[in-house]
Amino acid sequence: MLDVLFFGGLVLYFVSVVAHFLALAFRSDKIERLSWGVFYAAIALNGVYIAARGVVAGRLPLANQFEFATAFAWMIGLMAILLHIRTREPWLGALTSAAAFLILSFAALQPRTVSELMPALRSGWFAFHIGSAVLSYSGFMIAACVSLRYLMLDGREETEPERLERLDYLSYRMIAFGFLMLTVTILTGCIWAEQAWSAFWTWDPKETWALITWLIYAAYLHLRLNRKWQGRRTAIYALAGIVCVLFTFIGVNVLFAGLHSYK
After folding, report:
1. What does the DSSP assignment read for 182-224?
2. Taking the complete model, does pTM exceed 0.90, yes or no?
3. Rounded CA gap, 253 and 247, in Å?
């Protein structure tokens, strides 16, 4: 039953991606409404799967790479819905549904076995640490999607400057949110590490790359707020930042062994 829910959501995400791009290609309001309906269904099924897995496991389903990726895709979808309601931008569904589909496709490649929590994960900090990481990564991903759209529109004669300003500001707000959540992730991780391993910081590969990611986005905020960076430069920066996020999420687990290898 769990596999039916999971792969059903994956298929619906894919159908949503195709429908969104068809709506943009043919400028069809009917197809666009259909694409958002399918996207909503995919997010709902994704959420039902997470809840069902949590019931089966008897714990919060965020304990490994598969579960984190599944929650990551779901949160991208939820944020996309909120932004769609607020902005009504037709491109938003195409980019965010594609991002959610790719993340969930990565999850499909991971072992899906339901297992008990490792002893190090049995802590009250578990939900705060992993949950804030999901929110952080999702915020950064949405910012990257918005920035990609900015670069697609920048330079076109028909593009209104006000629209570019809205996109630029939206990307900034999502990065600020992601940065806040990443700060919470690192701080709660330090407290949790001291309780689990008697050390606030061990320079584990995941910790190191989380810090690198934090510094990259801290530099973004500094450049924007103090050096007045805006527009194309910050959009490119946001896309570079998401590469670091994805490396921290995927690359570190594949290339390095450490205390966080179970993620």
Report:
1. HHHHHHHHHHHHHHHHS-S----HHHHHHHHHHHHHHHHHHHH
2. yes
3. 9
